[in-house]
Amino acid sequence: MTQLGIGQLLCTTFSADPGSGKPSRLCVQWRHHLKSYAGMLAEPPEILTNPAKPILKWAGGKRQLLPDLVQRLPKQYNRYLEPFFGGGALFFHLQPENSVIADSNTELINFYQVVATQVDSLIGASQSHVNDADYFYAMRAKDWTQMSPVDAASRTMFLNRTCFNGLYRVNKQGQFNVPFGKYANPNLCDSQSLKRAAAALQKTIIVDSDYKALLDQYAGENDVVFLDPPYHPVSQYSDFKRYTKEQFKEQDHIELAEEVAKLKDKGCTVLLTNSNSDLVLDLYKHYQIDVVDSRRNINSKASKRTGKDVIVTVKPAKFFTGIAIPITPQEQTQKYPSTRFMGSKRKLLPSIRDAILAQSCRSVLDLFSGSGVVSYMLKAEGKQVMSNDYM
Hints:
By secondary structure, the chain is α/β, with parallel strands linked by helices. It is built from 15 helices and nine strands. The protein has helices at about 5-15, 25-40, 45-50, 65-70, 90-95, 105-125, 135-140, 150-160, 190-200, 210-220, 250-265, 280-285, 330-335, 350-355, 375-380, and strands at about 80, 100-105, 205-210, 225, 270-275, 290-295, 305-315, 365, 385. The strands form two sheets. The protein has a seven-stranded mixed beta sheet with strand order 3-2-1-4-5-7-6, with helices on both faces. It has a two-stranded parallel sheet with strand order 8-9. The termini are far apart.
C-alpha cells in the first residue's frame, strides 16, 4: 500500500465522524508521524546508516560537499580536528572516536557544550518557544551572556531555526542582528536529532578557542585537520561580512595558509574549503586544488544560490620512522673500508685519538690525510675535520 493510501485509511478509521470527512486529533497525529517517516525515507543513504547530522542551519554548511570531502580523507588517522566548526556537517558524518572541535564563536561553542552535557534540559527549555515575529525580536534583544548556559543554548537554537536562512551575523558589538525569517512551520526543537548529536559530541573535546591555539595544542603527526574558515569574498557583495565581531580579513587568510604549511610539516593531512578567489588559489598553489560546484543558501534569490568552492588537499610531509640504533665512535670508525695505502695509521688510531681528544679543540686539520682513516675517526668523534693531501 502506498504512503498516501495508509494515510487515507487511518483518517477514515480514526475520523470522529466518517461521514463528515473531518479528521480526528488522532488522525492528525498519524499524519504527522507519516510526514516524519517520509522525511526519513528522503534522506541520503549515508544519513540512514549514520544518523547524527547537523542540528543547526548554517550558511556555508558542508553537507552537500560530503562526498567530495570524504573521498579525500586518509583511510586511517589518529585524531580529527576541526577548529572552524560551524554546523559540523563533516564531523557528524564521520563521528570520529578521537576528535577536537572548536570555534571562535563563543555562543556557538556554548550551544554544542550544552547539547553534549545537558541535552534533555535543552529540549525542555525549548518547548515554550513560538514562531512569532514579536517573540523573535524579543529573544534576539536578550543578552545571551547573562543567561544560563541551557537558556542561552535554547535561544541560539530558536534564533537559528527562525531567522533568515539560518544566517549567523553579529554587529561590531557582537549582537546578533539577522531578521525574522517568516517561515510557516519551522521545526523549533528536533529532539531526536539533538539526542543523536549529543551522543556524537560526548566523544569529542569541545574547545572555545582561536584556531591557532587549538592547532598549536592538539595537532600532531597522522592527524586530520579540516579547515572551513569564513570564505574570502569573491566580490564586493558576496560576503555576509560578520561571523564574529572580529572579521576574518585578507591577512587572516594569509596567516591561515602559513598554519597549513606548519601542519604539513607536523605530519597532518589537511582538508581546507574556501571560495574560488584569486587570493585562495595563489595561497595554496603548491597543493592539490579542486574546484567544485556548490550551492549558496545565503542569497535571498534562489536563482543566484550557485557558485564554486575550492577544496585544498594537503598531504603530510614524509618522515623517516625507523628506529635509530646507537653506535659508538669506535664502532663507526671500524666501518671505514680498509685500504692498502702505504703508511696507513689504522693500527695507531687509539693512540692518535687519545692524544687529540686530550686537547680542548673543536676542529682538526689533517694535512697529509693519505687513506683518510684518521680524518674519518675524528669525524666519528664529533670533530670538524679539514683533510688535505698533496696527491
